[in-house]
Amino acid sequence: MTAETSLDVARIRKDFPILDRNVRGERPLVYLDSANTSQKPRQVIDTLTDFYERHNANIHRATHELGEEATQAYEGARIKVATFIGAADEAEVVFTKNVSEAINLVAYSIGNATAGAGGADSGRLRLAEGDEIVITEMEHHSNIVPWQLLCERTGARLRWFGVTPDGRLDLSRADELINARTRVVALAHQSNVLGTINPIADIAARAHEVGALVLVDAAQSVPHGLVDVRTLGADLVGFTGHKMCGPTGIGVLWARRDLLATMPPFLGGGEMIETVWMERSTFAPPPHKFEAGTMPIAEAVGLGAATDYLADVGVGAIQAHERDLLRHALEALAGIGGLRILGPAEPVQRGGAVSFTVEGIHPHDLSQVLDDRGVAVRAGHHCAWPLHRALGVQASTRASFYLYNTHAEVDALVDGIRQAQKFFGTA
């Protein structure tokens, strides 16, 4: 434990088998890429194994004991996820493949409502030519491209908040951007590149004044226990399991039950129906209306185990530990000549993803040198090309921290950067 946190990191690390391995020969793995995907604790791995070994069956349909067990495990995971994010009702939790699918679900549902498939209660969802959707320059491509496609289908106009040089949203034009024509405001809670935590409640209050819906991409904030949907201010929230110690292939869309009830289905098929005639169909109530076909059952159960794990560790302790790591990383990186931190340089309203450039070294080359030393980071545009253009760089290197990282691993990153500078003659 550090002096400032109550998290026993040495004990936590024993829960993650992969952290014991060596890479590139005999180099101990230093995993600093959790914003890309997190590692999985043994408790989640064992849950997946147990499900497949003892309870594997399809859900909702089978009347045998295995089917009952699988259904209970799947729906139990929904309850666990709802509790973790503060949802009032587990029926507000829709399982998806990932956050990208969650955002696409919303965009296509709005498109279906616009096309007249949403029923009498879906008027708030409909877009007309001249209506506007507002996003930000800070977004992951998953929260840009679906809205571009929706605008192309409907004739709506896409607008966006810019980014200040220090990596904050430029809110100076908020009243102009969010206006009577705005129907949707979609933005990240925490930037996957800059670590910036955006003022969702303030932006949502302005959006609600003009009757707009607010969707939040919380892929980078839910894993760190930063989201309580009761107070966040959003109408819809998407996140993904693999960044929060859960399996890949499972994500979540949260929305209030009354809003989900007005949204047309995204996909058609088995299980999402109420009745089917040859001429027409009626649909199940939320959340099942949006869960067509055989779902990622084991993955949902694994996500439930991940929420149990994070809750048992304690999100407050996780947050304190990550703030401590972030403070150490920002101070240490700032001491490297020629290194530019993208985004806020102070650990205020900022999460543990730190992207940077090093003068004279391409991010891909830097990441390769780090990898040779066992330090795993990400290099590129991080699925945020417009943001990199706005900051005047083609690509960056990103280190991201989670509950299992240590000060020594931050120091290994810093030492690796200095070695790369020596290797490329830029020190």
Describe this structure in words.
By secondary structure, the chain is α/β, with parallel strands linked by helices. It folds into 2 domains: 9-31 and 314-423, Alpha-Beta Complex (Aspartate Aminotransferase, domain 1); 47-311, Aspartate Aminotransferase, domain 2, CATH 3.40.640. Helices cover 38% and strands 16% of the residues. The chain contains 14 helices and 17 strands. It has helices at residues 9-14, 42-55, 65-85, 99-114, 145-154, 174-177, 200-209, 229-232, 257-262, 297-313, 315-334, 363-372, 385-390, 407-423; strands spanning 22-23, 27-28, 30-31, 93-96, 132-136, 157-161, 182-188, 213-217, 236-240, 251-255, 273-276, 281-283, 339-342, 353-358, 375-376, 378-380, 396-400. A 7-stranded mixed beta sheet has the order 4-10-9-8-7-5-6, with helices on both faces. A 4-stranded antiparallel beta sheet has the order 13-14-17-16, covered by helices on one side. Strand 5 (132-136), helix 5 and strand 6 (157-161) form a beta-alpha-beta unit. Helix 11 runs parallel beside helix 14. It is globular.
Annotation keywords:
single chain; 427 residues; alpha/beta; Aspartate Aminotransferase, domain 1; 2 domains; four-stranded antiparallel β-sheet; 38% helix; globular
Briefly, what is this?
The protein is an alpha/beta fold and 427 residues long.
Give the helices and strands, then pairings.
Elements: H1 9-14, E1 22-23, E2 27-28, E3 30-31, H2 42-55, H3 65-85, E4 93-96, H4 99-114, E5 132-136, H5 145-154, E6 157-161, H6 174-177, E7 182-188, H7 200-209, E8 213-217, H8 229-232, E9 236-240, E10 251-255, H9 257-262, E11 273-276, E12 281-283, H10 297-313, H11 315-334, E13 339-342, E14 353-358, H12 363-372, E15 375-376, E16 378-380, H13 385-390, E17 396-400, H14 407-423
Parallel strand pairs: 3-15, 5-6, 5-7, 7-8, 8-9
Antiparallel strand pairs: 1-2, 4-10, 9-10, 11-12, 13-14, 14-17, 16-17
Helix pairs in contact: 2-10, 3-10, 4-5, 11-14
